[in-house]
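From the pipeline queue, job 12 of 40. The input is one protein chain; the requested action is below.

Action: predict structure.
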Amino acid sequence: MTVVGPTALEAEVAAKVVAILGSQDGLTWLNQRTSMAGLLVLESEEVLQSQRMQPYFWS
C-alpha cells in the first residue's frame, strides 16, 4: 500500500486507517479525503487506486 498526503505523518496515519478498514472501505475512506491519494495491491495481485492517484504515476 502507498498513500500520498500533505505530510509524511498524515500519509502514515491514513495508510494505517486504510489497513484497519480493509481494502474496499479503506479506499472509500481515502477517496473522501481530498488531500490524499493511495494505491493498494491486494493478495490476489489486484491493484486498486484512489480517485486522485493518477497524477502521481509516471507516463
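Job complete. Helices lie at 8-21, 23-31.
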